[in-house]
Write a structure and sequence with these properties.
Elements: H1 3-18, E1 21-27, E2 38-43, E3 54-59, E4 65-70, E5 81-85, E6 94-95, E7 109-114, E8 132-139, H2 146-151, E9 157-159, E10 170-173, E11 179-182, E12 198-200, E13 203-206, E14 213-217, E15 223-229, E16 234-240, E17 243-245, E18 252-260, E19 263-271
Parallel strand pairs: 5-6, 8-9
Antiparallel strand pairs: 1-2, 1-10, 2-5, 3-4, 3-7, 7-8, 10-11, 12-13, 13-14, 14-17, 15-16, 15-18, 18-19
Bound molecules: calcium ion (CA) (4 copies).
One calcium ion binds next to helix 2.
Amino acid sequence: MKPIDSLFIFMGISFLNAQALVINEIDADSPGADTAEFIELYSSTPNLALDGYVLVLFNGADDASYAAYDLDSYSTDAIGFFVIGDSGVTGVSYTFSSSSSSNIQNGAEAVALYQANKADFPIDTPVTTTNLIDAVVYDSDDPDDTGLLAGLGKTVQYNENASSDAANHSLQRQADGSFKTGTPSPNIANAVLSIETTEISGLHIYLNPVSQMLYVEGLTQTAIATIYTLSGERILTKPIHHSFDVSHLTTGIYMLRLIHNGTTIRIKLVKQ
Ligand SMILES: [Ca+2]
Ligand SMILES: [Ca+2]
Ligand SMILES: [Ca+2]
Ligand SMILES: [Ca+2]
């Protein structure tokens, strides 16, 4: 392969990564009349134009579509979030035309994001992986729907009622791409539900992944924390007594170096 070809392939991959768009949260069953449903998308690129994307909702009963929403002219916000849902949902930017408990049917059903148009998905279009960007098959204590899973190329179906409180919980994407139930968080970062605690040299470092505050317990004197990108660029250095605020960091993976009592500790830090 000529070097110039490699360069273009490299640039193409970088571009695709920067444009990544995922289904980040689904709340199909909301309290009372169930008219606070929403789907949250997240892009690693803020203010990502959603032209050319369509969100399609599929029935488990017949493995075919019951709704499609063209996202042309919409975009993610300055953080990277986009919310489609019933009127009144916090941060909703695409409001369903009427309030109904079945705008997002309670499982077993699926939500899928395609690079396509609404016209490609008339009602009762069978599930397909053609032009599929992301999909989530979910339920509420229902058995796995093999038709939806196979038709969307998925192996895991997520239960909105996993904590026996589907009305007050949504399904939220975690750092590893799996979904867990938690208090609905439309238009803001999902609850950090899978937490890795690092215990090293007598220190207890958490939360990781982190969205706002990183805590370090066990310090016997002020430590010096430095955060680097994976390519070694220093982002910040500051003294740390117990915790520090990393909410301003861009989502991604960093190296955290802590110098404490003459000992240097390095851990990988995931910012959500
Ligand atoms: Ca719910
Ligand atoms: Ca089915
Ligand atoms: Ca519903
Ligand atoms: Ca959220």
